[in-house]
Recover the amino acids of this structure.
């Protein structure tokens, strides 16, 4: 139990990456067309954080994982049907808006207040996990802000690996420029770790874990507190799709030699 | 009235400002000039002397948070240093490079100052105001935003401004006292991927992306991962390109399949990977579907080699798609490039 940890994973839900996104502006500000009916998934980098958390708890008896997620209850329930089969956790849902356009500071405030109120959470054992960026806003600031609000001054972003030591300290590998990792050693929790992809493959669906999770997920969703997010002076001048369509030349009849010659000329051209 | 602070830091040499920092200086000068606002540059370094001299001609007030504690990036020390610089400067708009060092701390600093932050800024516009452009949904939706509250922190994406290149000179630097918190984290250095091959080159003109097709069965019914690896590394050596990969190819390593041993998640481009900036990009054995192509937003010229004439690249995502076997094409490309080098 020396390394028993309380891991809180902050994870939002995002539109399935294969969906076509079209921004629209309504009375409440910008959003996505048909946002509520777009298939959703757990944010990919936050999902990495969840899998890493589950892996750590499996190796360290006495540890526990909470998954804190802000989104419309109906969408959360839909996504949890799949996520619940991947890893064991206690869901702490917050019934709030979906999407990338609400202000990150407001989101962080709601998340921090929710985490602070989790019954039984020992702040001295707390590892706050999440994705280093989301696939919606992609700002990479929410987790830091939550950490600051919870008074955590050891933060790591772009994490690909954590190595626990017997004395309770841990080594962290963070992504830095040039395809390298910065190596740090922290004396122990509490700490914030914003995960990149990590090193774990996505766990296979485990119906037994799913059934165990769903026994607590559904009541938690029913109890989810509603949250509204303040704009904090944030206003959008414009929100639009980029003009990304290119006129593609498809070459079906060139020989490998011809293609190679053309590519080499193109590579060398300024 | 607005006032502008540009936060900067030094590179691994410990003395020179990073290129991204110099780009932020350019952005700060332009913004301050447009708003008729005073400009301050803050430097975080063990010793800020050389860094300060490189921006002496920027016409800015220079502040520094110096000391051995700032020799290495670390949340507790960098956040405290940046907080002290911001409090000394009393700026309403704070610009900083979107480097790993400052993205780690900038939001925390903004919170400590009662301010707000927006990141991945690609352009600053407006006439009498500050309008910031950035992308949402992994480079799929572009927005221009403003904030009515101050201080407003803006982290600038690398490559969006020219690097400041003024005459070096003697500089008057105000040292800002920083009261360090108790430190619980030690930084022991940097670690490159264990395979020992430098494949990620942010300054390269060309991005070469390998897709999962390189390790799939070829027309002879066999996989040729070793040959694929030699072709790819040979191309990187001959061209100086930076290597990217699709998620599916990188993931194969974690699933025990035939893999390219030099690929790591750091090479990953797209929805769950990087969005690098290169002048040109060449995709091989890759479908070019949307989750992958969102990582190509800032690649100006795009070409692809694929056996599938209906792949995503051919649907307006690339300039040229060659329908061909990438093994054959890249072998010939390597031969031509090697011949040019010798």
């Amino acid at each position: 139990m020396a390394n028993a940890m309380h891991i809180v994973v902050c994870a939002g839900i995002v539109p399935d990456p294969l969906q076509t996104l079209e921004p629209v502006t309504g009375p409440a500000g910008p959003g996505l067309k048909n946002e509520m009916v777009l298939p959703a998934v757990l944010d990919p980098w936050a999902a990495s954080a969840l899998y890493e958390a589950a892996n750590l708890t499996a190796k360290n008896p006495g540890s526990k994982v909470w998954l804190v997620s802000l989104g419309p209850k109906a969408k959360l329930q839909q996504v949890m049907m799949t996520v619940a089969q991947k890893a064991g956790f206690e869901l702490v849902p917050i019934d709030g808006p979906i999407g990338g356009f609400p202000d990150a500071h407001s989101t962080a405030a709601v998340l921090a207040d929710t985490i602070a109120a989790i019954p039984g959470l020992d702040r001295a054992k707390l590892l706050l996990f999440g994705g280093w960026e989301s696939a919606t806003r992609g700002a990479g600031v929410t987790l830091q802000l939550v950490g600051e609000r919870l008074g955590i001054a050891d933060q790591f972003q772009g994490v690909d690996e954590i190595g626990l030591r017997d004395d309770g300290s841990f080594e962290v590998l963070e992504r830095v420029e040039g395809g390298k990792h910065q190596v740090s050693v922290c004396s122990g929790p509490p700490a914030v770790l914003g995960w990149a992809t990590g090193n774990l493959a996505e766990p296979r669906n485990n119906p037994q874990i799913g059934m165990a999770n769903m026994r607590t997920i559904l009541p938690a969703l029913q109890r989810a507190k509603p949250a509204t997010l303040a704009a904090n002076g944030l206003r959008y001048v414009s929100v639009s799709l980029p003009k990304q369509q290119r006129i593609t030349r498809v070459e079906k009849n060139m020989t490998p030699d011809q293609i190679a010659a053309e590519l080499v000329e193109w590579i060398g051209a300024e | 009235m607005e006032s502008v602070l540009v936060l900067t830091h030094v590179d691994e040499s410990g003395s020179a400002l990073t290129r991204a920092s110099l780009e932020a200086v350019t952005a700060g000068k332009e913004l301050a000039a447009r708003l008729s606002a005073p400009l301050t540059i803050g430097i975080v370094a063990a010793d800020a002397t050389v860094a300060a001299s490189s921006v002496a001609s920027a016409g800015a007030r220079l502040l520094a948070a110096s000391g051995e504690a700032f020799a290495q990036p670390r949340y507790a020390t960098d956040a405290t240093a940046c907080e002290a610089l911001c409090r000394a400067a009393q700026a309403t708009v704070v610009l900083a490079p979107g480097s790993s060092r400052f993205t780690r701390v900038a939001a925390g600093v903004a919170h400590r100052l009662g301010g707000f932050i927006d990141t991945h800024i690609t352009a600053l516009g407006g006439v009498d105001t500050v309008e910031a452009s950035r992308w949402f949904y992994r480079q799929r939706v572009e927005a221009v935003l403003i904030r009515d509250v101050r201080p407003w922190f803006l982290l600038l994406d690398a490559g969006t401004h020219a690097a400041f290149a003024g005459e070096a000179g003697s500089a008057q630097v105000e040292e800002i006292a920083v009261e360090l918190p108790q430190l619980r984290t030690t930084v022991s250095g940097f670690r490159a991927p264990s395979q020992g091959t430098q494949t990620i080159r942010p300054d390269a003109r060309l991005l070469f992306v390998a897709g999962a097709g390189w390790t799939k069965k070829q027309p002879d019914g066999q996989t040729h991962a070793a040959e694929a690896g030699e072709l790819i590394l040979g191309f990187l050596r001959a061209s100086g390109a930076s290597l990217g990969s699709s998620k599916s190819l990188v993931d194969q390593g974690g699933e025990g399949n035939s893999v390219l041993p030099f690929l790591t998640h750091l090479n990953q481009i797209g929805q769950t990977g990087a969005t690098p900036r290169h002048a040109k990009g060449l995709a091989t054995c890759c479908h070019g579907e949307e989750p992958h192509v969102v990582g190509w937003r800032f690649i100006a010229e795009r070409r692809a080699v694929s056996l599938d004439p209906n792949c995503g690249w051919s649907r307006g995502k690339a300039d040229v798609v060659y329908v061909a076997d990438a093994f054959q094409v890249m072998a010939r490309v390597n031969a031509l490039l090697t011949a040019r080098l010798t």
Q: What stands out?
A: The mean pLDDT of chain B is 92. Chain B has two domains: 4-175, 206-341. The first helix of chain B runs from residue 19 to 35.
